Amino acid sequence: MSRKTGYVFDDLFLRHTLGAEHPEAPVRLEAINLLLETTGLLHGLSPVTPTISDEIALQNIRRIHSGDHISSVKQAGITWKAALQAVKGVIQAADGIMEGRLDNAFCGVRPPGHHSHNNGAHYDGRNQGEGFCFFNNVAIAARYIQSHKGMENILIIDWDYHHGNGTEWSFYSDPTVFFFSTHILWGYPGSGFPDHKGEGKGEGYTLNIPLPDGAGDREILAVWNEQFIPYMEHIGFSPDFILVSAGFDSREEDYLGTFQITDEGFSQLTAIALELAEKYCGGRLLSVLEGGYNPKGLASAVHAHLKALVG
User: pTM higher than 0.90, yes or no?
Assistant: First the structure.
């Protein structure tokens, strides 16, 4: 079965840079686009070009980020424009899925977002951001989706090598958003402990399962099939929409990660996520690029992910 899969991209994402030799570089997206073009897969995707207004994007950014945070990012020049454009892209892709024009979508955006929260001034004069992140694209998308009737419960899956501390922070006391993350425990940002399960009404709606150094397909698939899915069923969480923080620094041979997940592993994870989407929410699934710092490996993993999304 072939699905109509959206692909968010904009040339503005290539203009954002964190300096020479920085791993979060434009070549990441250039490598993805080159491989998608070379294999012909790009022509089977539905392009999504961000065109909504700055004000609509800012209205939705304010659902997650403080005024001080936004003002700080505004100082970052082209990075501000790219970060704003990334938010526009995830919003438009979500619209396309909710309105039935797309079955699912992948957002090839920069800068990434899952470390971003409101922990003081975000822009430090060197465009570094929090873990290379400026606005939390997935968290903003979740709140945007929830603003639509019938979209109350959101599942966020984060398979990045690094824990999505900004996303966890955004929903830690919220029972309408179930956040599930696999990650390395003792790397950046030093969060994501298994006993961090949410608080208040949100207790039990955060599931952190760290993986051991060198973990690969077998380990992460076992976590999904034997812990994550049974737990979600046990608490009776039924998502209306699924978001994926698709970080591919958990792939083998990544420059900043030590996991050994293969392209086939990502294909299988995507297939399981799609099965959950079909079971619970009419196939509504949106994935957003996070990490992945070996350009060749990143492109290969994204290609496998997109092939699975298309079916």
Answer: yes
Catalytic residues, by residue number, are: 115
Indicate if the pLDDT at residue 84 is higher than 80: yes
Q: Is the pLDDT of residue 121 over 90?
A: no
Helix (H) or strand (E) holding 302: helix 295-310
Region 54-75 average pLDDT:
94
Q: Which residues pair with 241 in a beta bridge?
A: 154
- Tokens 């973990």 belong to 215
**Sign, CA torsion 189/190/191/194:** positive
Name the packing angle between helices 27-39 and 295-310 (round to 10°).
50
The sign of the dihedral angle between the CA atoms of 283, 289, 291, 296 is: positive
For the chain, which residues make up each domain, given as ranges?
5-310
Which residues, 6+ apart, have CB-to-CB distance to 218 below 8 Å? none
Provide the pLDDT for residue 119. 62
Sign for the CA dihedral angle at 197, 271, 214, 298 comes to negative
What is the third-level CATH fold of 5-310? Arginase; Chain A (3.40.800)
CA 32 from centroid of its chain's CA atoms? 16
Residue of 226, 12, 209, 206 lying closest to 109 (CA atoms): 12
Cα 221 from Cα 226, distance rounded (Å): 8
Strand partners, 107: 8, 288
Q: Read off the pLDDT of residues 4-37 as tens digits, 9 standing for 90 and up.
A: 999 999 999 999 999 899 999 999 999 999 999 9
